[in-house]
Amino acid sequence: MSPTTPAGPHADAPVLTTGAPLDQAVAAVLMVHGRGATAEDILGLAAELPAEGVAYLAPQAAGQTWYPYRFLEPTDRNEPYLSSALALLGRLVGRIEAGGIPAERIGLLGFSQGACLALEFAVRNPHRYGGVFGLSGGLIGPPGTAWAETGSLAATPAFLGCSDVDPHIPVARVRESAAHLEKLGALVDLRIYPGMDHTVNRDEIEAVRRLVAAFSA
């Protein structure tokens, strides 16, 4: 993968890091925060994940929002923000790879709006990643969207977790997203939590921790 030329509202996004320095790391996790949150918020989750040899990177959205409207809106309504955000993720994956870490040791993790971005990036840029983690999110686009079907995720472990009554993320879209990831060759672990709030629970954290430990070993 080659870095994308910076453009749009997220072109100059600051990136926070924790864990191992990238030039010393054996694996990396790109962490994408939700709407109204910060890079610091999502990076706090790294304290629950494997530390040795893992670099954690979290970009900050302009105005704390990756795109202005719901992820179920026509994608054109969320431009140029959506394309700018996806391009930023592409540049960061390129930066990680340039540091000597291959895609199969890179995790893509997001919560809520960030989960939508992480999943969308994975299907638009399919490779054998270390893992794809969508915490309360789904693929982007209105009902009937035809997502990318070219390329392969080549047995990438993918974890999707969400409430069955999430006010922001319809459970049907989460299931639809899981099915599409499987169609592209991902090994999907889908967990729907009855009655859970729009949050991340301990079971999800443990699932992510195990997968990060596996691709950073």
The proportion of residues forming helix, as a percent range, comes to 25-40%
- Largest sheet, strands/sense/barrel: 7 strands, mixed
CATH topology: Rossmann fold
What count of domains describes the coordinates? 1
- Quickly give the CATH architecture: 3-Layer(aba) Sandwich
Q: Rg from C-alpha positions? A: 15 Å
Q: State the distance separating the first and last CA atoms.
A: 23 Å
Overall body shape: globular
Find the count of extended strands (DSSP E, 2+ residues). Answer: 7
Structural classification? alpha/beta
Number of helices: 5
Q: Could you list the spans in which at least 5 consecutive residues all have pLDDT below 50?
A: none
Strand content: 15-25%
Q: What does the average pLDDT come to?
A: 96
CATH superfamily membership: Alpha/Beta hydrolase fold, catalytic domain
List the helices and strands in order.
Answer: EEHEHEHEEHEH
Q: What is the spatial order of strands in the main beta sheet?
A: 1-3-2-4-5-6-7
Task: Describe the protein's architecture and organization.
This protein has 217 residues and is an alpha/beta fold. The protein has one domain: 3-Layer(aba) Sandwich (Rossmann fold). 29% of the residues lie in helices and 19% in strands. The protein has 5 helices and 7 strands, in the order E-E-H-E-H-E-H-E-E-H-E-H. The chain has helices spanning 39-43, 81-98, 113-124, 171-183, 202-215; strands at 15-19, 27-32, 54-59, 106-111, 131-135, 157-163, 187-193. The protein has a 7-stranded mixed β-sheet, sandwiched between helices. The chain is globular and about 45 Å long. The two termini are 23 Å apart.
